[in-house]
Amino acid sequence: MSADIPEMDSRLERLPLTLRDLLTAHLPEPWRWIAQSLIAIAVVLAAFGLLFAFLTLIERKILGRIQNRPGPNRVGWGGILQPFADAIKMLTKEDIIPRSADPVLHYLAPVALVSFSLLSLAVIPYGRRLVALDLDSGVLYFFAASASSELAVFMAGWAGRNKYSLLAAMRALAQLISYELPLLLSLVPVVMLAGTLSPSEIVAAQSGWTFGLVPHWYALTPWGFAGFAIFMVASLAEANRSPFDLPEAESELIAGHLTEYSGFKYALFFMAEYFSMCALSGMAVTLFLGGWQSPFAALQFVPSYAWFAIKLLVLLLGFIWIRATLPRLRIDQLMRLAWKFLVPLALINLLTAAFWHLSAGWGTGAQPLRWGIALALVAVPFVLIGRRLSSGLGPRTYRYAAP
Amino acid sequence: MNLALIILGLVILGSAATALSIRNIVRSVLLLVASWFGIAAFYLWAGAEFAAFAQALVYGGAVSMVVLFAVLLTRRGHLDVPVPPPPPGRLLWAIVAGGAVAGIIAAAAIRTPFESLNNEAPSLPVRKLGALLMGPQAAALLVTGVLLTAALLGAVVIAAGAKDDKEGAP
Fold first, then answer.
1. Distance (Å, rounded) from C-alpha A166 to C-alpha A170?
2. Cβ A144–B33 below 8 Å, yes or no?
């Protein structure tokens, strides 16, 4: 891939690797490999740790602006040091373990949650040469690591010996079983058309531009767009983000599985939530938005990791915007959305992708027909299933008290 | 290299044995999950990346959820009341039955001639694995698919039947 366009391999592009080699140059051979791996781990931890800290601030600021209030604005310049004040507060708070709780599981749950969500950050290609662990079956690894995180939520909910926590644990399990399916089904077309399970090869398969303007990202094909939409909805549910934050619904379950947690363990849960949000967004960027590829051929001088960071931040801001906009779903609505809407659409999307793959050889004249059929395969089921599900629910009528 | 295998074996067998012996059902399910992850780690040790991740995804992510869900949906009383240890006769039969199954599997494993026992472990890329599954091993894949589909249809039929019973309930 990089051999085709050597002029894009600028000094800025190689900067992270140059720095790493500078640090490890004087070490003997086996130690250099270990040191390079440790540096990769440390960089990923530091980058996402800082991103987590400032993402909490950005989220509170944006939520504040959307709700027409300033948000945190006292600590530091305009509130910029708020995350560090929060960290000190969380670290110095008392760690309470309820007397009837299961102490081992109560301790293990936040640790397991954070470690599982950190594991999934390892295989995402952050740049042309920046991938910590380039696995042949990296996509499978990613979902194996992130699927286990809901186990930790269950442990947290059960260990607390609290009925709200237990309800949250049950909701978490139901939610996982339901949304794991559309999440995995929505990425099967990508694996089918790229012909690989390796994230870096999937990014390489999306390289190139039409007329130097329209990138060959999967999100810009009919099946890819549908897959991207399904993937994002399902990953909102996987990351326990609003409007799917039923396990920790503050207003119904007094924060659910978090009810019996305090101090730093409580902070670890939030850390894990943001890490898994970042990991899922990173995977969405990799699978559908061309990974580290630049959107225009003329903008290739910008280093690839910067493009990845921009796309990741856009998706994360989308997550925050959705949280500020949509109300939480009821548990039956959550189930209906997954099983009756997302799973059928994801299955139909498999057929759309198969059609797209089989019609790849059609001539230039037949391209409008190819696009038309593929778009119809995406849009018609969406409208039909959506109408059937929402029939009998509208139009809404309002009744007012007599004046 | 062998030390890692011994530690893995101890983790797998130890957590499975503890899961069977303790009386707290949720804890034993979680120990069982630990054992499944141990098996995934064993696959990773053996160089079978794909099988390891599939094991972690299917057993750690999905089967564990189903088991835990089943445990939570059973009546709460069973979780609190300590179950008395089984009578010695049942224990004996359990050991006999378990021993028989283990003997059959061990005998089959010992008698099977492994061709590449002394060779380097082959590293199989996923693409080749997929080609093998779709080509020479397609029959096994199809049988598994039919079996799972039958199980799914059975679950749907049972669920649909249960819904009719509850129709009158508030």
1. 6
2. no
Best of A173, A181, A343 to substitute, by most chain B Cβ atoms within 10 angstroms, is A173
Res. B163 pLDDT band, cuts 50 70 90? low
A1-48 residue pLDDT tens: 444 444 556 777 777 777 777 777 777 777 887 888 888 888 888 888
B25-45 and A149-159 are packed helices; what angle lies between their axes, rounded to 10 degrees? 160
Determine the number of helices (DSSP H) and then strands (DSSP E) in chain B: 8, 0
What does the alpha-carbon distance between residue A40 and residue A93 come to, in Å, rounded to a whole number?
A: 32
C-alpha distance from A85 to closest chain B C-alpha (Å)? 36
| B73-80 LR contacts (CB < 8 Å, sep 24+) | B78/B25, B79/B24, B79/B25, B79/B26
Does A141 reach chain B within 8 Å, measured CB to CB? Answer: yes
Burial A48-68 (b: 16+ CB within 10 A, else e): beebbbebbbbbbbbebeeee
Q: Complex ipTM, two decimals? A: 0.75
Q: At what angle do helices A343-358 and A163-194 cross, to 10 degrees?
A: 10
Three-state DSSP at A171 gives helix
Domain ranges of chain B: 1-83, 84-114, 125-170
Amino acid A6: pLDDT: 47
Helix (H, G, I), strand (E, B) or coil at A244: coil
- Out of A144, A173, A195, name the one closest to residue B60 (CB): A144
Q: What is the per-residue pLDDT across A78-114, written as a single tens digit (0 to 9) for each?
A: 888 888 888 888 888 888 888 887 888 888 888 888 8
**Whether the Cβ atoms of residue B95 and residue A182 lie closer than 8 Å to each other:** no
Any residues with CB less than 8 A from the CB of A155 and at least 6 apart, and which? Answer: A105, A108, A109, A112, B30
What is the pLDDT of chain A when averaged over all its residues? 83
Q: What is the pTM of this model?
A: 0.83
CA A147 to chain centre: 13
pLDDT category of residue B101 using cuts at 50, 70 and 90: very high
**pLDDT tens figures, A267-311:** 888 888 889 889 999 999 998 888 888 887 777 777 888 888 899
Query: Is A177's CB within 8 Å of B126's CB?
Result: no
Domain ranges of chain A: 97-357
Contacting residues for A134 by C-beta, under 8 A, at least 6 apart = A123, A125, A198, A200
Query: CA angle, corner A228, sides to A226 and A230, nearest 5?
Result: 70
> Could you read off the pLDDT of B52-95 as tens digits, one per residue?
888 888 888 778 888 887 777 776 555 555 666 677 888 889 88
Q: What is the CA radius of gyration of chain B?
A: 21
Q: Which CATH architecture has domain B1-83?
A: Up-down Bundle (1.20)
CA proximity to A153, closest of A141, A139, A167: A167
Q: How far apart are CA A400 and CA A351, in angstroms?
A: 48
| Nearest-Cα residue of chain B relative to residue A173 | B65
Tell me if chain A has a CB within 8 Å of the CB of B125. Answer: yes
Distance CA A279, CA A115 (A): 13
- Contact A105/B30 with Cβ under 8 angstroms? yes
